[in-house]
Amino acid sequence: MSSIKSVLLVGVGGQGTILASNVLSKGLVEAGYDVKMSEVHGMAQRGGSVTTQIRFGEKVYSPIIGRGEADILVSFELMEALRLIEFLKPGGKVIVNNQQIPSAPILAGRVDYPEGILEELQLKADTKAIDAVGIAKELGNEKAMNIVLFGALSKVLELDNIDWEDVIRNTVKEKFIDLNINAYRAGRNI
């Protein structure tokens, strides 16, 4: 637990970014890490950006991740990954859901959704694209895509000493436990 790790989770309102961040933070705290979390979700309920910064280690003084400091960027939407890639450190990893959610200017027809985002991400960082929505749909509810992405993140973090399934059980509503456990397992197996 000597070095500090920084994880940036980004998405669009309604994608479950905050829930995934809460699962991660709870598991880390239970494992004995000092954890600091900061979230920004200004217009999230209207489809705006959601950003969560989580830093953990032996002793963490601030939750804020500066440009070029994130070890891992987990993006629930393609354009959000590209928008915040500058926060990833050299040699950092990107886990990205391959979903495209048009922003308000795109929906209004003022601009087009950018093309080639995944290719650009792959040029800038070690990037793993996941069809998290498709996997979650196969499990019965596309909203579980956040926990599919969390499962992939938990594998990259290599924190196998944490019982993530128990953390999920104690975090999500009872009626969604089985769905989220299955989503977690699917994400781990990617």
Automatic annotation (TrEMBL):
The family database entries (Gene3D superfamilies) matched by this protein are listed as: Pyruvate-ferredoxin oxidoreductase, PFOR, domain III
Assigned keywords, A-Z: Oxidoreductase, Pyruvate
Cite the PANTHER family for this sequence.
Answer: INDOLEPYRUVATE OXIDOREDUCTASE SUBUNIT IORB (PTHR43854)
Kindly list the GO molecular function terms attached to this UniProt entry: oxidoreductase activity, acting on the aldehyde or oxo group of donors
Q: Which InterPro entries match?
A: IorB_Oxidoreductase, Pyrv/ketoisovalerate_OxRed_cat, Pyrv_flavodox_OxRed_cen
Top-rank taxon = Bacteria
Name of the molecule in the record: Indolepyruvate oxidoreductase subunit beta
The organism is: Tissierella pigra
Q: Which residues form the Pyruvate/ketoisovalerate oxidoreductase catalytic domain?
A: 13-188
Is Oxidoreductase there in the keyword field? yes
